[in-house]
């Protein structure tokens, strides 16, 4: 082989090695899912966020604590995922009717807090829209 052929072969190997390195090391980006699926009571709902993402976005950490002893033992619950609700009402509920708020249309993930622990006196609801991820609140007294 002549010097020219050796140089030509060397340059060809360099070009092939460079192409191979760039082809292998090209970063591929993972695309986030546009819609998630939430299954509740056998029905599947399309949602912008998962329940876990909703909890993280709005700081809805689930917490249950126990108080008292024996017969006087009760629990307080914060941010329990309760249901997927359709066309819920926001505002303040008292004595069998809504005192304020409005009906919001669509499907919502409902997180309920019962800070008193008796299950009936005071409830706070956070409702997160499955369509756009906006949060609404309601209060039962």
Automatic annotation (TrEMBL):
Residues 1-32 form the signal peptide. This is Uncharacterized protein. It comes from the Bacteria. Keywords: Signal. It comes from Levilactobacillus hammesii DSM 16381.
